[in-house]
Design a protein that fits this description.
Length: about 675
């Protein structure tokens, strides 16, 4: 983005300025597009799309930014990431925040060479939303295995690959499938919160696009990645919280790596802030906007656009029957595609509002982008639109119809749940082959990772130091040092467990159970999976992501005694048990929607309730399912699904890296 400095003068020892943004005639042409970012056409040969990712430590508002934002033109210098005006360390790809976007057509082959330039940390990249089962030939049936699958490219250390060591290079190669709005991010602990993420957009030809008549423009510049943000590194937040009483709350909010926190001006109004993201539109057109929640903490986000309704057409890369809403709530890892119609709107600049909820409400965290109608004036002084600090109260509780409301079940026309949506691609499901039940809560046990029962057990420590541990079916997930997919022969099989075969002598100590938490799914079977929030000890909502699949959302219900209590310490009776859900299901009290249920890969679970999903086990390999709140994932809030057996898996690439213990 080019900028023009209008006025700069000295005020005592302070510097004050007004700045105007100069936007090019076309946002799409401001940077050179990758050749794979193109119009997708039927009958054309898929491309091979090559990218290089350099992973390294950088900083926000670093020396690359010179005098940004005192000189606004400096904010768009190469390698300058102004962020929200606060300097801190970051982990970036190609020195960009967000990192390099990948925009391709369905069935293209994506090749990414990742160079780990972190001096003392490993890394990997997960391609969130992609199946990794290759391009299916038109003659292949749904149950037929694809020999060109690449499950080893999923990017999970200990499951599908070895971690990439400092100085090492690793090549990912996989087919872009399915179409939709996806993203990539580090799957090494505490790196996503430091900035290691980016967009991954897979388009398809109009002939296969069921919503092609609902919008006129689908621009690569109209992708927004949102994130709760803090002013310390991920490890500097994580350690004080898990070993002391440090905060786990966000302090700021970013849209495409841009935010407003520090005021560089002398006065509160209008103030002088780092620039926010702008989306340019023209009156009379309908625009597809792709939104990705790269959030880290317990921070669902309420999105709205001043003066505009949003038509939701897709979630997690899966098309849904259009739903018109005034606001939508997005959980960590979710993506939503919305259409905004500019036909009858005044040509001016409107606020796109993002209000942080739950833990983000503690510090009133919210973010802003601008929907700017193009006119003859190419200059935009953002301070005239955002005059001083913004008010959190105007970013939440937006009147009107809402999608994906917090801690709600089905059936409320004003608060549409994900389970109320319908797929735009019609199908009728049959009854499942079997049903699994996975429950979770936070246990008051002494996790040996953070306690010592002989001197500072959970019950002995004081205040906020008695941090609880998340578990699924009373088990915390650990990962082997040798990847399950590529080195199963090197894995200690005694460490596999689940709720049916838990060995207290091997997997548990003083009530704390830790293992390679795994469930076997037969290749081709259909499994109904209940993800159950038992409601203890807080009323919150956790988002779960399943790698390698789209699942179907069949039902969603909250069962707690106080359904209007949406957040905080739970009250009497506002918790349930896994057995309560099992009993209701066996009694036929949980109806399943088999008529075109929506497909997702990330879904929230109502507190003291459940979300019921259908997994169609047609993608062989080892696949992780986990809470997408970063810290919960890294301390064991997940399970692994083994789909099929070795005979169903493709042959590993030759010379695939191996790793393991040194003793």
């Amino acid at each position: 983005m080019k900028t023009l400095l209008i006025v700069l003068w000295a005020c005592g020892l302070s510097l004050c300025c007004k700045a105007a943004t100069v936007s090019g005639s076309d946002q799409e042409n401001q940077t050179e597009k990758h050749p794979c970012d193109r119009k997708c056409k039927t009958g054309t040969k898929p491309m091979t799309c090559n990218y290089k990712f350099s992973v390294e430590y950088t900083g926000s508002l670093s020396k690359a930014c010179f005098n940004c934002p005192l000189n606004m033109s400096d904010c768009s210098r190469p390698d300058c990431n102004p962020v929200d005006g606060v300097e801190r360390s970051m982990i970036t790809v190609n020195r960009e925040l967000p990192g390099t976007p990948i925009v391709v057509c369905k069935d293209d082959t994506i090749v990414v060479v990742v160079k780990n330039k972190l001096h003392a940390a490993t890394t990997t990249v997960h391609w969130h939303g992609l199946f990794m089962h290759g391009e299916k030939d038109a003659t292949m049936g749904e149950e037929e295995f694809n020999p060109d699958a690449t499950p080893w490219a999923d990017g999970v250390p200990g499951v599908t690959q070895c971690p990439i060591l400092p100085g090492q290079t690793f090549k990912y190669k996989f087919v872009a499938n399915p179409a939709g709005t996806h993203w990539w991010h580090s799957h090494a602990a505490l790196q996503r919160e430091d900035g290691m993420y980016g967009a991954l957009i897979v388009r398809e030809p109009d002939a296969k696009n069921v919503h092609k008549d609902l919008y006129d423009e689908d621009l690569s510049s109209h992708v927004m990645i949102i994130q709760d943000w803090v002013h310390k590194s991920g490890v500097d937040m994580w350690l004080p919280h898990h070993w002391d009483d440090g905060s786990n709350k966000a302090t700021s909010f970013l849209v495409n790596g841009k935010g407003r926190f520090r005021n560089f001006g002398v006065n509160k109004f209008p103030g002088l802030f780092t620039p926010v993201e702008e989306l340019l539109v023209e009156k009379g057109k309908r625009y597809r906007i792709r939104v990705i929640n790269a959030g880290v903490s317990l921070c669902p986000v309420e999105m709205s656009v001043d003066g505009h309704a949003m038509t939701v057409i897709s979630s997690d890369g899966a098309d849904v029957e259009p739903v018109v809403v005034k606001s939508l709530i997005m959980h960590n890892g979710e993506r939503y595609d919305v259409v905004i119609d500019t036909s009858d709107k005044e040509k001016k600049t409107y606020l796109i509002r993002f209000g942080g909820l739950m833990d983000c409400g503690a510090n009133k965290i919210h973010g802003t982008a601008l929907l700017r109608y193009r006119d003859s004036n190419q200059f935009l002084d953002q301070s005239k639109i955002l005059n001083g600090p913004t008010k959190y109260s105007s970013y939440i509780n937006i009147p009107g119809k809402q999608l994906n409301s917090l801690n709600r079940g089905q059936g409320d026309p004003a608060r549409v749940s994900v389970a109320d949506l319908r797929s735009a691609r019609k199908e009728v499901l049959k009854a499942a082959d079997r049903t699994l039940y996975l429950s979770y809560n936070f246990h008051d046990t002494s996790n040996p990772e953070f306690y010592d029962d002989s001197s500072y057990s959970f019950k002995d420590v004081i205040g906020k130091n008695n941090l609880r541990t998340p578990k699924m079916n009373n088990i915390s997930l650990s990962y082997p040092v040798s990847p399950l997919l590529s080195q199963i022969e090197d894995v200690d099989i005694s460490m596999f467990c689940n709720s049916d075969n838990l060995d207290p002598d091997i997997h548990c100590k003083d009530g704390f159970c830790l293992c390679y938490h795994l469930y076997q799914l037969q290749y081709g079977e259909e499994v109904d999976l209940f993800i159950i929030d038992e409601g203890l000890p807080w009323d919150v909502s956790h988002p779960f992501h399943l790698h390698g699949f789209h699942f179907k959302v069949l039902a969603m219900e909250r069962l707690g005694a106080s359904p209007d209590h949406l957040f905080g310490w739970n009250g009497p009776g506002n918790n349930i048990t896994c057995q309560m859900v099992i009993d209701r299901d066996v009694a036929g009290m949980i109806p399943r929607n088999y008529n075109s249920p929506p497909s997702k890969d990330t879904v929230a679970v109502p507190d003291a309730g459940y979300t019921l999903i259908r997994i169609q086990a047609r993608n062989p390999g080892f696949w992780l399912m986990h809470c997408h709140m970063s810290w919960h994932n890294h301390i064991g809030m997940g399970v692994i699904f083994k789909v099929g057996s070795h005979k169903d898996w493709p042959e590993m690439p030759s010379h695939f890296p191996k790793c393991g213990n040194f003793v």
